[in-house]
Amino acid sequence: MANSSQALLAAPAQQDFMANVHPGHGFEIWQGGPSSAASAPPGCSHTISGSDFSQVVEITVPPGGTVTAEPGTMLYMDPDMKMGADVGGCGQGCKRCCCAGESFFRLHLKNHGAREQKVALTPKFPAKIVPVELGQHSGMIVNRGAFLGAIGTDWSVNLQMARNASVGLCGGQGIFMNTLHGSGMAFLNAGGTVMTKTLEAGETIVVDHHSILAFSRADMLGVRRTGGCMVCCCAGQGLFNATLTGPGFVMLHSMALAKLKAAVGNQGGGGSNNNGANSGGDS
Q: Does residue 63 have a cis bond before it (omega within 30 degrees)?
C-alpha cells in the first residue's frame, strides 16, 4: 500500500522528524506520515509513495517553479514541464562529481505552463526517499551519493575536510565530507530502515561506517578499532568502526548501496544451477 511521507527536517513550526526524538533516548525508527504543503516552498507540495524497497516522490510545481534532480531520476512529468541541464558552475560540478559521488550535471525540470504541474522522481537504486528541510539544517553532512533532488535551485554541495587523517581514511566518509547547503526542500536516498537519534553533549555511539546517512557536524565523526586480530579478520566489521559524538543528530540506514552491492555480489558469486550453468554475476 502507498505511504505518504512527512518532511523529516522541517522548520520548528512544522512537523519535524526530530520532534519526538529526545536527547539521551534510544534510536527512533522513521515511519513517515502525511506530507504537508506547509513544509515545502510556497506553491509546492510533495507526496512520497511506494514500498520500503523502492519509493517515488511526486512534486506539485507552481507556474515558473523548478525542481532540480540527479540525471536519470525522472519517472514521469506533466506536459508543461520542460527539461534542462546545467553544471551550476564548474567548481560545483567538480565538487559533486569528484568528491560528492554525484553527477557533474544537474537536471532541471521547470513548469512553463500557467497551471500547477506534477513531476515524479525515483532513486536509481532500491531506496527510500528522505525529505530534508535545508532552511532548518543547512550545512549537514550527507553520505556520498545520497542526494536525489531538491525543490528549486537554492542548494549547493560544499566540502569539509575530515579533522584528521585517521577519520578521513577510516571513517567511511572520505577525506572530504559533503555538506549540503540551501534554503529549500531536498530529498535523499536511503536504503532499508532509517533510524534517527539526537545525541547529548559528550554522548558517543559506535556505528558501522557504511550505515551513516547524515549527521549534524563534521567534528562529530571519529573512528575506533573494532578489536583484536580475530575480530578484524573474521567478524566482518573490518579494522575500524565509526564513532559519532554529540551534541547533534544522527541518521542511519540499514542497507546502504555499498552493502546492497556486496550482498548481491555474494549471492551471485559462484555455484551452479540445476542445468549446470554458472550462476556468477554479470561481467
A: no
For residue range 2-35, list pLDDT tens digits in order.
444 444 444 333 344 444 455 556 777 766 533 4
- In the chain, count of helices (H) and strands (E)? 5, 20
- Residue 196 cell numbers, joined: 534517527
Question: Residues near 86 by Cβ (< 8 Å), separated by ≥ 6?
Answer: 105, 106, 108
Phi and psi angles of residue 166, each rounded to the nearest 5 degrees, phi first: -65, -40
Alpha-carbon gap, residue 90 to 184, rounded angstroms: 22
Q: Which three cell numbers stand for residue 275?
A: 542445468
Q: Are 271 and 279 in contact (CB under 8 A)?
A: yes
Question: What's at 270, amino acid-wise?
Answer: G
CA nearest neighbour of 157 among 73, 70, 244: 70
Element (H, E) at 134: helix 134-137
Point out which residues pair with 197 in neighbouring strands.
250
What is the maximum span of the chain, computed from C-alpha positions, in angstroms? Answer: 66
Query: Between the CA atoms of 25, 173, 227 and 262, what dihedral angle is there, to the nearest 10 degrees?
Result: 100
pTM: 0.74
Q: What are 241's strand-pairing partners?
A: 224
